[in-house]
Design a protein that fits this description.
This protein has 264 residues and is α/β, with parallel strands linked by helices. It is built from 11 helices and 9 strands. 48% of the residues lie in helices and 19% in strands. An 8-stranded mixed β-barrel has the order 1-2-4-5-6-7-8-9, surrounded by 4 helices. The chain binds ligand C2E and magnesium ion (3 copies). The site of one magnesium ion (MG) has 2 residues, from strand 6.
Length: 264
């Protein structure tokens, strides 16, 4: 009886797994179609100078605009990454972002890049090709990489090539990962983006708010010593901006200065 129970339980588990796989397959097909049907859209969020609040750049943030609503990248980037679809999607993103630069709709752009994209042997060549086609200056492009993917030593030569091309590289979500400090020593990074998990509690009159501010002060001191500017992500209140300005952040990004939105 007990064995039969266990067997029944396993069958139910298997059914659930199959169902989950089917749902994932359907989502993947839909995402594939999204790319073909132009359902993907780039939103742009301003990055401002900490002192003057002048807009210096925009971060390109992907959205999937479905008839049922707008889907967050957090809900489809992981699937795009595991399926490999991030490669054509990422190329579309780069193309769109650089087109916006060419049309002078924005002056600088920061583009998120997945590890799998960078791992393509022709990644640098592709970027070079769009830059040549469009005549856009490479200095106007920041590529945002997340630390865990950048830490792999085999990426160092690619980053060097990007550097040689004149494109700049940023370490995204700094502090929210494993061994993030090592990336600063071994890779040619030119900008540090401080993760929102550090900036969010700042301004709260709590011990963790106070500690977060001190941690950010330390990150900024470290970046400054390395000659690297910093972006504080996720600024939502004037109080956060004031405190982060005091600790010497170079740039701000967050709802206080503008939400991600399509270029009008
Ligand atoms: P990220 O690169 O760290 O982007 C910052 C995220 O913080 C964005 O979420 C942005 O909308 C959100 N944000 C900005 N300011 C605020 C604020 O003041 N408060 C709060 N609560 N959130 C704020 P989003 O647009 O949902 O993107 C999530 C992540 O998806 C990005 O994190 C990035 O890792 C990834 N992603 C987005 N677009 C692309 C893309 O084109 N390619 C790749 N590979 N990844 C992308
Ligand atoms: Mg980013
Ligand atoms: Mg980030
Ligand atoms: Mg992130």
């Amino acid at each position: 009886y007990r064995i039969k129970q266990a067997g029944g339980g396993h069958a139910a588990f298997q059914r659930q797994q199959d169902q989950r796989t089917t749902i994932q397959m359907e989502r993947l097909t839909a995402l594939h179609r999204a790319l073909e049907r132009d359902e993907l859209q780039l939103y742009f969020q301003p990055v401002v100078q900490a002192e003057s609040h002048a807009v210096v750049a925009h971060e390109a943030l992907l959205r999937w605009v479905r008839p049922t609503g707008v889907v967050s990248p957090l809900d489809f980037i992981p699937l795009a990454e595991t399926s490999g679809l991030i490669v054509p999607i990422g190329r579309w993103v780069l193309q769109q972002a650089i087109n916006a630069l060419k049309a002078r709709r924005i002056s600088r752009v920061s583009v998120n890049v997945s590890a799998l994209e960078i791992r393509q042997p022709d990644f640098v060549e592709f970027l070079q090709w769009i830059l040549t086609e469009t005549g856009v200056e490479p200095r106007r492009i920041w590529l945002e990489l997340t630390e865990s993917s950048m830490l792999e030593p085999r990426f160092a030569p690619v980053l060097q090539d990007l550097h040689a091309l004149g494109v700049r590289t940023a370490l995204d979500d700094f502090g929210n990962g494993y061994s993030s400090l090592m990336a600063l020593t071994s890779l040619p990074i030119e900008l540090v983006k401080i993760d929102r998990s550090f900036t969010a509690p700042i301004g709260e009159v709590t011990p963790s708010g106070q500690r977060a501010l001190e941690v950010v002060r330390g990150i900024v001191a470290l970046a400054t010593a390395l000659g690297l500017p910093t972006v504080a992500e996720g600024i939502e209140t004037p109080r956060q901006a004031a405190l982060l300005s005091q600790v010497g952040c170079t740039f701000f990004q967050g709802y206080l200065f503008g939400r991600p939105q399509p270029l009008s």
